[in-house]
Amino acid sequence: MPGAVLPEVATQIPGPISKASAKKLDEVFDARAVHFVVDYDKSEGNYIVDVDGNRYLDVYSQIASVPVGYNNPAMLAAAQSPDVISALVNRPAIGNFPSRWWNDILREGLLRVAPAGTDKIFTAQSGSEANELAFKAAMMLWRRRERGEGVAWTQEEIESCLDNAKPGSPDLAVLAFKNSFHGRGFGSLSCTRSKAVHKLDIPAFNWPKADFPVLQYPLDKHEKENAAEEKRCLEQVEMLITSWHCPVTALIIEPIQSEGGDNHASPAFFQGLRDITAKHNVVFIVDEVQTGFGATGKFWAHEHWHLSSPPDMITFSKRAQCAGYFFGNEKLVPDTAYRQFNTWIGDPARVVMSKAIIHEILDKNLVEKSARVGEKLWAELELLALDYPELVQNLRGKGKGAFLAFDTREPAALVGKMRSLGINIGTCGTRTVRLRPMLIFGDEHIPILMDAFRKVFGAA
Amino acid sequence: MPGAVLPEVATQIPGPISKASAKKLDEVFDARAVHFVVDYDKSEGNYIVDVDGNRYLDVYSQIASVPVGYNNPAMLAAAQSPDVISALVNRPAIGNFPSRWWNDILREGLLRVAPAGTDKIFTAQSGSEANELAFKAAMMLWRRRERGEGVAWTQEEIESCLDNAKPGSPDLAVLAFKNSFHGRGFGSLSCTRSKAVHKLDIPAFNWPKADFPVLQYPLDKHEKENAAEEKRCLEQVEMLITSWHCPVTALIIEPIQSEGGDNHASPAFFQGLRDITAKHNVVFIVDEVQTGFGATGKFWAHEHWHLSSPPDMITFSKRAQCAGYFFGNEKLVPDTAYRQFNTWIGDPARVVMSKAIIHEILDKNLVEKSARVGEKLWAELELLALDYPELVQNLRGKGKGAFLAFDTREPAALVGKMRSLGINIGTCGTRTVRLRPMLIFGDEHIPILMDAFRKVFGAA
């Protein structure tokens, strides 16, 4: 294909320099999860180059967090802009001493892509933090409603909360789903239900877990079973909300469960959640940390649902290269200042970078491009599944851009073999390979990826 | 004094442009805690300039988080260095795909100032996150010891943790102190005991709280009472550790409780904590988020204690302009990869900036400078306390650089009046004014600060 750079692999993966470098790093910094050590200066666009000189087509993009390619010229320009330099050198306590341009940066950047129905933002530094901040806003709203508008905090509340005791520190819950991933803080981890390695040995809140629908593929051959499965899960959600030992103040869900195995549900399911949460005054939080910023062929994955009313909060991170939550209801701003607060409240340098990313995505119609390329990639993967039905199962993500996945027998082995062919991909769940190309992944990269799959599967 | 720029205040504070700007911002971003809106381009060194053109001597430094001054030339150079540009544009998932220079940046930067007895690091994005990561490492170590080295996780553990249930999600505690501040995540907030505004309405873990010694001032006139008070608190700590309903895996303490009111304790008290934690296998975490990076006249405040053996973990953020924890015991690296992990594991752009800060501090002997200036500032404050004994009480921080504080009747009113004289200072606790000058605060700034105090108190 014209314009397509080919991967180049000259060593075993990881190569000797990568290995030595990771070993050296491991003396001071846990490097056991290092796949290879990277020369980012030599990486470009969709291609990542390791310190041994191997060049990979990157279809994993830093755990789904590279939006517009390595050394993207627009980002290089932004990184050298006066605003970024100033934000790096003069890091403000934004809540107390914001920069004169903070308002403009928000409006010209993140708020330009605020999901429909939202017009306010709170910034953070990670998806985990964004989710916890959203939980806190939901809990404060719940208690504000219970307490009554304008009713002062009682002395008992004020004193007991300093002892981590009721009524000041109440039992309030957030409902999440089986196989979900919402982060690794003590609150977000209590909502994460993906793998033991994320959770073992860490205390957790007694919060409810609902089943996420387990759909059967191909979807068009299992409409009835899948509808029944989603109905069952919705009924369970409502049962949990109405019967839990303490108030369920918020429900958090990923549009596509990513770490947990690329699990999808239908728009009707999410509309059901919207209805149930609205009925019970539960804040509906959509965790778009992995799906946001164009990953699914729309800027926000929840746009695929065409909900009757928007989610209450949308959290983001990863491809945004910064983090936070969007919301519309001003009651989600706590009753007084300093309740939702911290020293930095995000990182303005990263928020300015995010503005450049947003402009790049919008100016170059990268979401539309990714939707289009994703369709072609889907068609190729369908052919692959026909040729290797044992090795490519439950192909999923149709219509969700290039946010595609399938189950296979030995995902980790497949990833290793793909790397030695110069393709960097990732796994999720227990038997799934997930594709997380950047938004600039083009038609010309599809054959490179597919050739590698066919080589590996053909040799299996 | 030669070289000292004078503050300039030409409007009411906040000025009309600040007010209008904050109001506009508040439409989209909670701006109720904004003191004034800043023109960082015009700010320099110790002076912060607002959008109305008012220039303040900044003795609060973004809630104690500016190390070497606004628009510091070394930081400006670092912000434009290839490493920072690369880290901004190509943000890695450090745990999987570290940059070829990550190892060097850590060793030439943060590890150069690793506290004695530590030689390993885990990076994070905020003090809150750093503390929670430290808790998790302590909890995993505790269970590893209980489980036995090399003993595999049981199926029951693996399954139960996904339900937030025992034994996989055990009851494990972290002990913290009354009036402490350790962050606002659900775990760190369970250790924060400072003010209701930080904690109210948020669920908390049932973790123990010990009294922090309440010392009487001046110290040399209350030696006996203060020793008794510290003994009482130490006994309480040991009682809590040995009698709590679940294992206390870690103890976290600030060398000087900052948000909670600038509360000090003696080296003997901290040695007592070291002894008790060592005796009971409790991980001793020193939270140097506010005190680290030279704030107290030593690079790390716990150096003042001359402990018989070092703390197990030291967390940092704020002046470091990045965050994380240091440690020495390799058992604090969890038994397998991916247990202590997240997508970004800190922000390399900020870590490179931190390296520049460290070099600036070391090259210019800024810790020694701050210690020296702090002594003079202390002497002036003692004179002030003699002249205004009703308004300047419990002066504290002697020998701790410029990390000084005193109690006063109406701290918020004092801060307001000081701002209108062009001095930016902050409060803490319920009746305390805290000074948090940068490390470049010089002799020449002392009279400017003292003149303002005298003007305000003289008019009182």
UniProtKB/TrEMBL annotation, chains A, B:
Cofactor: pyridoxal 5'-phosphate
Catalyses which reaction(s): 4-aminobutanoate + 2-oxoglutarate = succinate semialdehyde + L-glutamate
MF-aspect GO terms: 4-aminobutyrate:2-oxoglutarate transaminase activity; pyridoxal phosphate binding
Biological process terms in GO annotation: gamma-aminobutyric acid catabolic process
Enzyme Commission no: 2.6.1.19
Entry-linked InterPro entries: 4NH2But_aminotransferase_euk, Aminotrans_3, PyrdxlP-dep_Trfase, PyrdxlP-dep_Trfase_major, PyrdxlP-dep_Trfase_small
Alphabetized Pfam families for the sequence: Aminotran_3 (PF00202)
GO CC terms of this entry: mitochondrion
Keywords: Aminotransferase, Pyridoxal phosphate, Transferase
CDD domains given in the database record: OAT_like
Similarity remark: Belongs to the class-III pyridoxal-phosphate-dependent aminotransferase family.
Protein name: 4-aminobutyrate aminotransferase
